[in-house]
Automatic annotation (TrEMBL):
<dbReference type="Pfam" id="PF02875">
    <property type="entry name" value="Mur_ligase_C"/>
</dbReference>
<dbReference type="InterPro" id="IPR036565">
    <property type="entry name" value="Mur-like_cat_sf"/>
</dbReference>
<feature type="domain" description="Mur ligase central">
    <location>
        <begin position="111"/>
        <end position="254"/>
    </location>
</feature>
<dbReference type="Pfam" id="PF08245">
    <property type="entry name" value="Mur_ligase_M"/>
</dbReference>
<dbReference type="GO" id="GO:0005524">
    <property type="term" value="F:ATP binding"/>
</dbReference>
<dbReference type="InterPro" id="IPR004101">
    <property type="entry name" value="Mur_ligase_C"/>
</dbReference>
<protein>
    <submittedName>
        <fullName>UDP-N-acetylmuramate--alanine ligase</fullName>
    </submittedName>
</protein>
<dbReference type="InterPro" id="IPR013221">
    <property type="entry name" value="Mur_ligase_cen"/>
</dbReference>
<keyword id="KW-0436">Ligase</keyword>
<feature type="domain" description="Mur ligase C-terminal">
    <location>
        <begin position="358"/>
        <end position="403"/>
    </location>
</feature>
<dbReference type="InterPro" id="IPR036615">
    <property type="entry name" value="Mur_ligase_C_dom_sf"/>
</dbReference>
<dbReference type="GO" id="GO:0016881">
    <property type="term" value="F:acid-amino acid ligase activity"/>
</dbReference>
């Protein structure tokens, strides 16, 4: 393609158009853009700053179409729209043409799993930055970057490496397309536990969607939690031919959880954290001897030993909880293998990393009580966080702001975890209030542990599970209970955490 030609990108205030404009500009093409929004309403205008891309905001003028040699319309643009007619017979270049013409040309590493993805991705990137390695960033403010084309386009932006979180998608094919179109050569799977079952039939159907990550990696390098029977089962089932590196944690199991094996049998997992631990199935699937194993875990002093295949490291952690020992171990291996860094360049960042905001985050101290929020919003995530919270702090009150994506079954699981680990429960989401009322009917003795804040009209507002008012009211209720520690769980709790300052 001739570098003197000008690409006219329509929709530069949308994520895809914005990324495409910057990718083409970085690769040396002339780029102009347009969008129906005005600059003040353009969500990603800031990302275009410093790029020397002329943008026509509002209605695309004749000048835009005159200057552009090729038009890149948004995928959503209707062929009947007036904008489409304005293009006349200019050659059209589409999203997939960009993906085909411009390759990522850098090593790309993907992180997936049900829990711990964001912590893992954030920390691995931090280690890269601390060592002068620049990961490509999408720079789309406020976007999680999980939507299918964002990681694919992001990997084509300038940077030394790509470190990309691959989200939990229900739709078959999506994960496979991301792995393929980013040219991913390595990856990490944190765990696979039941969640997001709304679009899919069974847990195994869900697991098989995640399995695309494995099958599309081909001969790549895969770092996995070996204590997760689902991951290890899928690796066997798919006959993965790349390099597998396993990690695990040497701790005594403290519960038994049932999980479906890839062979179809139910297996009892002696759990260290939810869904992961020691397992044996009649089909032969069993916990492997991990390549990297964390031992001597001291959560109070935040230290553990990590046995690598060649040496023993002493790891200092800046975060709490056994689930984070898994997360950090995975990150240390990824930084060593993928970023090719020696351990002494990795461990200082591990020690100074105090976590992603919204993950076991202490928000405030109000009336002498410590208030934490955690983003946990699926049954396994909630169980893990509350269990670790119990170990660390003893008695606490849980404010539930979740409405589970797995529906009623997930909501029950979440409520039961709260009952199991916390002293008091304040149901703040509509879903948890419904369950609370059922529980109180069948077990009136729970009256001194479950505190219904208010009973609303059971209309779910928005997609977050609870409104800002419900979060605030829930926290207020929790502060009036006789317990020093409060943890509010769910996306709503983290989003509206500042409501605590109204109290
Ligand atoms: Zn089996």
């Amino acid at each position: 393609m001739n570098k003197n030609k000008t690409f006219g990108v329509i929709g530069v205030c949308g994520a895809n158009g914005n990324l495409i404009a910057r990718i083409l500009k970085q690769r040396g093409y002339n780029v102009i853009g347009t969008d129906l929004s005005f600059k003040k309403d353009c969500r990603f205008a800031k990302a275009l700053e410093g790029y020397d891309i002329e943008v026509f905001y509002g209605n695309a003028p004749e000048a835009f179409f005159k200057k552009a040699d090729y038009i890149i319309p948004p995928a959503s643009l209707s062929k009947d729209s007036s904008l489409f007619k304005q293009m006349g017979d200019k050659p059209i270049f589409e999203l997939y043409d960009v993906i085909e013409m411009i390759q990522s040309e850098k090593p790309v590493f993907g992180i997936t799993g049900t829990n711990g993805k964001t912590t893992t991705t954030t920390l691995l990137k931090k280690i890269a930055y601390d060592n002068g390695i620049k990961p490509c960033e999408h720079d789309l403010e406020g976007m999680q970057g999980n939507a299918e084309f964002i990681p694919i386009l992001q990997s084509r932006l300038d940077g030394d490496v790509g470190i990309i979180e691959v989200g939990t998608f229900g739709v078959p094919g999506t994960i496979g397309r991301i792995v393929k179109n980013t040219g991913m050569s390595g990856g990490l799977i944190t765990n696979i536990t039941p969640d997001h079952l709304n679009d899919l039939g069974s847990f195994m159907d869900y697991a098989k969607v995640k399995a695309e990550f494995i099958s599309e990696l081909g001969l790549g390098q895969l770092i996995v939690n070996g204590q997760d029977p689902t991951i290890m089962g899928l690796l066997r089932e798919l006959d993965f031919k790349g390099e597998v590196i396993t990690f695990g944690v040497d701790e005594l199991p403290d519960s038994i959880g049932m999980k479906e094996c890839v062979c179809g049998n139910e297996i009892a997992v002696k759990e260290i954290i939810s869904g992961c631990g020691y397992y044996f199935c009649k089909c032969g699937l069993t916990t492997p001897q991990a390549d990297y194993i964390a031992t001597n875990i001291d959560l109070k002093n935040r230290t553990f030993d990590l046995h690598t295949p060649t040496e023993k490291l002493t790891v200092k952690m800046g975060v709490d909880g056994l689930h984070n020992v898994y997360n950090l171990t995975g990150v240390i291996i990824a930084a060593h293998k993928f970023l090719d860094l020696p351990y002494d360049k990795i461990l200082p960042t591990i020690a100074s990393f105090t976590g992603v905001s919204g993950r076991m985050e202490e928000v405030a101290k109000v009336k002498g009580k410590d208030i934490f929020v955690d983003y946990a919003h699926n049954p396994a995530g909630v169980e893990t966080v509350l269990k670790e919270f119990k170990k660390l702090f003893g008695d606490f009150t849980t404010v539930i702001t979740v409405s589970s994506e797995s529906g009623y079954v997930g909501d029950i699981d979440i409520f039961n975890s709260a009952l199991k680990f916390s002293k008091f429960i304040v149901p703040a989401s509509v879903a948890s209030q419904k369950i609370a009322i059922e529980k109180l009917k069948s077990k009136p003795e729970l009256n001194d542990r479950i505190f219904l804040n208010h009973i609303d009209n059971f209309e779910k507002t928005g997609t977050l599970g609870a409104s800002e008012d419900e979060v605030r009211d829930g926290l207020r209720k929790a502060l009036n209970l006789d317990c020093e520690m409060v943890i509010a769980i769910g996306e709503a709790a983290t989003k509206f955490k500042n409501a605590v300052f109204d109290l």
